[in-house]
Design goal:
By secondary structure, the protein is an alpha/beta fold. 33% of the residues lie in helices and 14% in strands. The protein has a four-stranded parallel beta sheet, covered by helices on one side. It has a four-stranded parallel beta sheet with strand order 5-4-6-7, with helices on both faces. The chain starts with 10 loop residues before the first strand and ends in a 14-residue tail after the last strand.
């Protein structure tokens, strides 16, 4: 990775997820460097790297998604998850399951579907759920793209969102309010994360020779409640 920063004062890494070998190489990196948490493999502790790590609090955000659906009366909740090997997907999965299991409503195995962070995962997952003897009344989606695919597949199958199926995403990208219905989702504070990362690089560049600040800075992930969720109808609470 050294060649990426030959003429720079520092580096902010927010590209593809790193491998375990990349992580080992980072431990000897000497230039001012900030890593986004989503680039870390699952199971790697930010404190072990020796560089600052900035990210979103995926666990808390996912717990808030599951909590919202529970408060709306849903107990038949499906999970449309992101790819294995993604730290974001892993943390969001853990957050959903922690909250649901705590409430005693662990999803059935047939209501859990894993794929890429793409609309096709949402479409394929909903198609699978509709083939089950009983379908979920709500789904937690690992990102907005998956949620868009889920809403599309539900519509094609003759279901209405949110009347027949509540859908929640994660990201709050530019299309979250442009789609129909507007998507209930978790907002990633990207601007705040970028500002924090730049500030840490500038701080390190202005203090050459100072010990690196080893830290994990997780930004809050607020819920944005919109039109793709609604309270479960009394008739469906069985």
């Amino acid at each position: 990775m050294q060649h990426l920063a030959l003429n720079s004062s520092g580096l902010i890494y927010l590209a593809e997820p790193l491998s375990q070998a990349d992580v080992q190489e980072l431990k000897g990196y000497r230039r001012p460097f900030v890593l986004t948490k989503s680039a870390l493999p699952p199971g790697v502790r930010a404190a072990d790297l020796g560089v600052p790590v900035v990210g979103v609090d995926n666990l808390a955000g996912a717990r808030s998604v599951a909590s919202l659906l529970l408060q709306l009366g849903h107990r038949k909740i499906g999970l449309l998850l992101g790819p294995a090997g993604s730290r974001d997907a892993d943390e969001r999965r853990r957050g959903y399951l922690e909250m649901l299991e705590k409430a005693g409503v662990k999803p059935r195995a047939e209501w859990i579907f894993e794929g890429n962070f793409s609309a096709e995962t949402g479409r394929a997952g909903i198609t699978k759920f509709l083939q089950c003897a009983e379908r979920p009344t709500a789904v937690c989606c690992a990102n907005d793209e998956i949620a868009f695919g889920a809403i599309n597949a539900a519509h094609v199958a003759g279901l209405r969102c949110p009347d027949d199926l509540s859908v929640v995403g994660f990201d709050d990208g530019i299309w979250a309010t442009a789609c129909q219905p507007a998507l209930t989702t978790v907002r990633q504070p990207l601007a705040d994360m970028a500002e924090r990362a730049v500030g840490l690089v500038v701080e390190a560049a202005n203090s050459p020779g100072a010990a690196a600040r080893v830290m994990l800075d997780e930004m809050p992930a607020p819920m944005m409640i919109r039109e793709s969720t609604r309270p479960l109808r009394t008739a469906d609470r069985k």
